[in-house]
Specification:
Elements: H1 2-19, E1 29-32, E2 41-48, E3 54-63, E4 69-72, E5 76-78, E6 84-94, E7 100-107, E8 118-123, E9 126-129, E10 183-184, E11 196-197, H2 207-211, H3 214-217, E12 280-281, E13 290-297, E14 300-309, E15 314-317, E16 336-340, E17 353-362, E18 376-380, E19 394-395, E20 410-415, E21 429-436, H4 438-444, H5 446-452, E22 457-460, E23 476-480, E24 491-499, E25 515-519, H6 524-531
Parallel strand pairs: 19-24
Antiparallel strand pairs: 1-2, 2-7, 3-6, 3-8, 4-7, 5-6, 8-9, 10-11, 12-21, 13-14, 13-16, 14-15, 15-18, 16-17, 17-18, 20-21, 20-23, 21-22, 22-25, 23-24, 24-25
Helix pairs in contact: 4-5
Subcellular location: Secreted
InterPro entries: CLIP_Serine_Protease, GD_N, Peptidase_S1_PA, Peptidase_S1_PA_chymotrypsin, Peptidase_S1A, Trypsin_dom, TRYPSIN_HIS
GO cellular component, one term: extracellular region
Length: about 525
């Protein structure tokens, strides 16, 4: 009799709790009131779909208050504050078409007076719940920005003087555990240490739970999720990239592969298969030092700029990519996510790595008005895993920085710029651009170039529609090292894409004009001083 009474009370309490829960987006997420069989818990069903194939799924569920556990049967889950949970399945390919359903549950402390509720859900960086309200904005214009120099103690790690680190062997594990019961608990302090656990949660599934989407769970272990991080909700006034106003797809992440820790800087393991406007297609791993910077803006991730990996822990990019428009303020490091080994702009292969930012080091003499010293160093939160798809580029030799020695030579740039139809390139493309003399560049468009050219930048391009265009800011211009094997050359970073000429009354650059490039060779000493700290 007592047992029956306890069951009745528990059932009543569960029904009372779930009955009070209302979804902020009923077409995407619903509280499941039928399958709850434990106190201090509610179940939910998430319905996700896409109009374009997604390689890798990254779901973030935001609760309005802390929960003890958010569990699911789809992928590993992580959190730091127990309010924002990330669910990542790097191997899952979500095909365009009918949506799939993902079931999860939330356990909470019975002593709490309020029940944690879903506040927001994102899929691969895009808010899907509630549906974002778009506010019409003015036509975007060219943003030129200034950054304040950081304090001298902004970066701390030891590095070799040749411009790249000794390669570490540490790597994040993406293995899924099911029946093993191990737990590693880290603090949820300001250091954002991630709490992880692989203890299987003993949740009694109904037959409906076991059968639904069986083909989607057949290759995955059932496990209790981990706990992970998320960023601030407030949006800075930040540079959103050259074509942020027409982007609509966001990134996810993938596991590592093809490790090659002994790789030399500036070398390529993958041979080329057969930005940038009228550029040539590249192949994965052909330019392993090129990185993509994404900015978190209005609860979404948007492609912002390119960059160049120069060590296991440092990326070089343009200063205007990491500063607020028309100010001297460096943006919050939590706003930028760095992707390495990326080939397709809107989807990911298994070689893609992602890193958060530890700090920005903007050149202290950066001038926003004229883009003088348009260069910045990004220190990554943790070293990358060097492999066939992610490798650093070599810095330029300090003994040979004479600009006249490279005039007329071809420099290679890569990126996801516009193609000849005005469409954003979906895959990484490259263009070989001749470096032109300052005099030739000035006389091609004196009113424009006379404002920006000085002794630490230069011009490159053909003026024939083959140019670095919108979306390629911050990417590197590389040349083969003098004397290296032409069949397997060593590549050195000579320039950083800084500025292009805008088309009349348009929001895109003019590919018939030269591109202004920051001369990275003039900053090698400054770069090495920072990355060796």
């Amino acid at each position: 009799m007592l047992a029956w009474w306890l069951v009745a009370v528990v059932t009543f309490l569960i029904g009372a709790v779930t009955g009070r829960l209302e979804s902020p987006c009923s077409e995407v997420f619903k509280y499941d009131t039928e399958s709850v069989d434990e106190p201090n818990q509610w179940n939910g069903v998430l319905t996700i779909g896409t109009d374009e194939d997604l390689e890798g799924i990254w779901i973030k569920i935001y609760l309005d208050r802390r929960a003890a556990v958010l569990g699911n049967w789809f992928a590993e889950s992580t959190t730091v504050d127990h309010k924002e949970f990330s669910i990542r399945n790097s191997n899952y390919k979500l095909a365009a078409g009918p949506p799939i359903q993902i079931e999860f549950f939330v356990k909470y402390d019975s002593s709490e007076q309020e029940i944690p509720r879903v506040k927001k859900i994102t899929l691969n960086g895009r808010t899907i719940c509630p549906k974002p309200v778009r506010v019409a904005s003015a036509e975007p214009k060219l943003h030129i920005s200034v950054a304040k120099p950081l304090n001298s103690d902004s970066s701390e790690t030891g590095h070799h003087k040749n411009g790249y680190d000794s390669y570490n062997t540490d790597t994040d594990s993406n293995q899924y555990h099911s029946k093993s019961k191990t737990s590693n608990k880290g603090s949820s302090s300001s250091t954002s240490t991630t709490t992880t656990t692989t203890e299987r949660y003993q949740y009694q599934q109904t037959e409906r739970h076991r059968n639904k989407n069986a083909q989607e769970t057949s290759d995955r272990d059932r496990k209790q999720p981990l706990y992970g991080t998320s960023s601030s909700d407030d949006d800075d006034n930040i540079y959103l990239g050259d074509f942020h106003f027409i982007q609509n797809k966001k990134p996810t992440s993938r596991p590592l592969s093809s490790t090659s820790r002994s790789a030399q800087c500036g070398t390529v393991a993958q041979r080329a298969a057969p930005f940038i406007l009228n550029g040539e297609d590249t192949s994965p791993g052909q330019w392993p030092w090129h990185v993509a910077l994404y900015v978190s803006y209005e609860a979404e991730l948007k492609y912002n700029c390119g960059g160049t990996l120069i060590s296991e822990s440092h990326v070089i990019t343009a200063a205007h990519c990491v500063t607020k428009p028309r100010t001297t303020d460096v943006i919050s490091k939590d706003k930028i996510l760095v992707y390495l080994g990326k080939y397709r702009l809107n989807s990911f292969n298994s070689e893609v790595q992602d890193r958060q930012v530890d700090s920005f080091i903007v050149h202290p003499d950066y001038n926003a008005s004229f883009l003088y010293n348009d260069i910045a160093i990004i220190k990554l939160s943790s070293p990358v895993e060097v492999n066939n798809y992610v490798r650093p580029c070599c810095l330029w030799d300090e003994q040979d920085t004479n600009f006249d020695n490279i005039v007329g030579k071809l420099g290679t740039v890569v990126g996801w710029g516009f193609n000849d139809k005005g469409e954003i390139s979906k895959t990484l493309t490259k263009a070989d651009l001749p470096i032109v003399s300052t005099t030739k560049c000035l006389f091609s468009n004196r009113p424009f170039y006379s404002q920006f050219l000085y002794d630490k930048n230069f011009c490159a391009g053909f003026k024939n529609d083959t140019s670095v265009c919108n979306g390629d800011s911050g990417g590197g211009l590389v040349l083969q090292k003098r004397g290296s094997n032409s069949d397997n050359p060593i590549w050195q970073l000579r320039g950083i894409i800084s500025l292009g000429v805008a088309r009349q009354s348009e929001n895109t650059c003019d590919p018939k004009q030269y591109t202004i490039v920051t001369d990275a060779a003039k900053y090698v000493h400054w770069i090495r001083e920072w990355i060796k700290h």
